[in-house]
Amino acid sequence: MAEEVANNQENAPQFNIQRVYIKDISFETPNSPAVFQKEWNPEVKLDLDTRSNKLAEDAYEVVLSLTVTAKNGEETAFLCEVQQAGIFTITGLTEQQLAHSLGAYCPNVLFPYAREAVGSLVARGTFPQLNLAPVNFDALFAQYVQQRQAAAAEAPAEANA
Question: The whole model's pTM is what?
Answer without folding.
Answer: 0.84
